[in-house]
Amino acid sequence: MAVEVLRRMGLTENAAKVYTLLLDAGPMGIDEIHVNTGVERRHLYDILGKLQNAGLVVFAHEGKRKKYSATHPSRLMGFMEEKEAGIKGIKTELLEVMPNLVKRFGKQKEETKVDIYRGVNGMKTIFDETLEHKENYYIAGNWGIIRFMPKGFWDIYNAKRTRKKVWWHDLVDQGYTHRDVGAFGKSEKMKYYHFRVMPFRVSSPHVIFIYGNVSVQVIWQENPIAVRIENKAIAESYKKYFWYLWKLGKKS
């Protein structure tokens, strides 16, 4: 358990083994650490050096030999706080350069850009991108975000969407309104959201997202697949199709 927690903090498995060994056994020489962990000596020097830099291990000379010891476990909290401070610093720097990165991305000369995203992490990327656009349109929605994304993902995403005041215009397939899939309480109303049900006998084998100049065709399954197309004319064409079906659909 302790080794797993240390790994999640950023230590390698071998570093976690060395640290917990020194906690249990007290001062040890390199040979003793090698025997007790099975980690090759040539790797131990690098591991111990990194643990020393993190303030988790110290050494003392006993005659001609070095003996390594773990520092008090309270140092682990300081180690984590320093990592968090470093991440905040990087995030601040990233926010500063983000406008330039977005501008450079926008200069790509391809008239039509097509990318394929696979799996849950690919869909997370798509949903993150939708939050950068105030108007989102969904054709043949079937609430795959509830049925196929990890538990709790919808709640986190929807909270961000609401804070950013991002509208969902949802044209859902027959039998897939948010009430039908149990996404919300029956009396609950989402902010910045409205839907109509697709016209009778009109459905699609996949869901289409439209936002900005992007349209995404999503096949919801255990390992989702999304085809992202960035082309203004195609996105505008899908929006026209959306509003045509919207007029035919059943009002919410």
Notes on the protein architecture:
It is a single chain. This protein is an alpha+beta fold. It folds into two domains: 2-70, Arc Repressor Mutant, subunit A (Orthogonal Bundle); 111-251, Endonuclease, Chain A. Helix content is 47%, strand content 22%. It contains nine helices and ten strands. The chain has helices at residues 2-9, 13-25, 30-37, 41-53, 75-106, 119-130, 144-147, 153-163, 232-248, and strands at residues 57-62, 65-70, 113-118, 135-141, 167-172, 193-197, 207-211, 214-219, 225-230, 250-251. The strands form two sheets. Strands 3-9-8-7-4-5-6-10 form an eight-stranded mixed beta sheet, with helices on both faces. Strand 1 and strand 2 form a beta hairpin. The longest helix is centred in the middle third of the chain and has 32 residues, at 75-106. The protein is elongated and about 90 Å long.
Primary descriptors:
252 residues, alpha+beta, Arc Repressor Mutant, subunit A, Endonuclease, Chain A, two-stranded antiparallel ribbon, 9 helices, 22% strand
Rg, rounded, reads: 27 Å
CATH class of the largest domain: Alpha Beta
Backbone shape = elongated
Which structural class fits the helix and strand makeup? alpha+beta
Helix content: 40-55%
Report mean pLDDT, rounded to a whole number.
84
SSE sequence, one letter per element: HHHHEEHEHEHHEEEEEHE
- Per CATH, the superfamily of the largest domain is Endonuclease Chain A
Q: What topology, given as strand order, has the largest sheet?
A: 3-9-8-7-4-5-6-10
DSSP E strands, number: 10
User: What is the CATH topology descriptor of the largest domain?
Assistant: Endonuclease, Chain A
CATH architecture of the largest domain: 2-Layer Sandwich
Beta-strand proportion: 15-25%
